[in-house]
Amino acid sequence: MIEIRHLKTLAALRDAGSLVEAAERIHLTQSALSHQIKDLEERLNCSLFIRKTRPICFTSAGQRLLALADELLPMVRSAERDISRLAGGEAGRLNICIECHSCFDWLMPTIDHFRQHWPEVELDLSTGFSFQPLPALSRGDLDLVITSDPEPRTGIHYVPLFSYESVLVMGRQHRLVGQRYVRPEDLSSETLIIYPVEQDRLDVFTRFLDPADVEPQEIRTAELTVMIMQLVASGRGVAALPNWAAYEYLQRNYIASRPLGEKGLWCTLYAAMREDQKDADFMVDFLNTAREITFKNLNGVRSA
Questions:
Q1: Residues whose CB is less than 8 angstroms from the CB of residue 223 and which lie 6 or more positions away in sequence, other chains included
Q2: Is the dihedral of CA 238, 240, 241, 247 positive or negative?
Q3: Positive or negative, the Cα torsion across 35, 71, 294, 160?
Q4: Where are the alpha helices (DSSP H) in 59-128?
Q5: Mind listing the pLDDT tens digit for each residue in 21-42?
Q6: For residues 4 and 10, is the Cβ–Cβ distance under 8 A?
Q7: What distance lies between CA 106 and its chain's CA centroid?
Q8: Can you give the pLDDT at residue 87?
Q9: CA 180 distance to own-chain centroid
């Protein structure tokens, strides 16, 4: 009566909090997902969650199946990895380069989890702030590049990982707190605090300020997210950061944030790899693990 796909669907529904987002995560249409749940409820002769609740409220039967999913699905993933090894797909090297200062929040847990299941794969990690990583990927010096700026290049394949909103963070008494959203011209009199990277690699410039032909009054750099937050909270400037990087500080009322533009500035993070490696078992599993860890641990991200 209960199939693995049912457990995956219920787990996605719990983690996503809505039918729309859950359907995107497991690559179904919303109607197909609803039909699958209705079919399972008819088989079991009971409801699994209460309709029109947000976040979704599961019934006792639904909670029991979620407990089963949490126990069984990791075992299925582990068995799939073992079978991949038996098929000869375990050997390899994964040299990762990251072009995102705040991505360590999800990348480190992903690497830790991956290492436990693929001890035979040689792992290495570097940052791409002092060199151009995509040419190094093409040459074979790197195997995977995490980037929000996909550049068309022969032999390079991009896989979207997830989407996130870039928000403007500011001190709680800042004048822009009184606005519903931030316009490009609002930053013309502000000190913008950024990571020490080229401006053409930052979405706040390429997709928000540059199209409006606006420049901030001053630009200041800081190496670490915690340093940026200290400066912002002290009224030394404002910064554009991923919503997940700001979440903890917003929860503590340490800072305030506002959307960039009326519709918000949504960005997508990609994994770039060589075409000849995109189907390697360990590469596929790393990407699946990255999505799983991200959706479980980061707030405000969406399926890409």
A1: 101, 195, 196
A2: positive
A3: negative
A4: 60-86, 104-117
A5: 889 888 899 999 999 999 999 9
A6: no
A7: 8
A8: 66
A9: 25
- Cα within 13 Å of Cα(257), Cβ side: 26
Contact assessment for residue 99 and residue 128, using Cβ atoms and an 8 Å cutoff: yes
Q: In this structure, what token pair is assigned to residue 28?
A: 């179904």
**pLDDT > 70 in the chain, percent:** 96
CA distance 285 to 117: 10
Q: What does the DSSP 8-state code read for residue 302?
A: B
Q: Is the dihedral of CA 241, 243, 249, 254 positive or negative?
A: positive
Q: What contacts 137, CB < 8 A, 6 or more positions away? A: 97, 143, 144, 145, 156, 272, 273, 274
Q: Which residue has the tokens 């394949």?
A: 157
Whose structure tokens read 């074979």? 140
The amino acid present at 261, given as its one-letter code, is: G
pTM, rounded to two decimals: 0.72
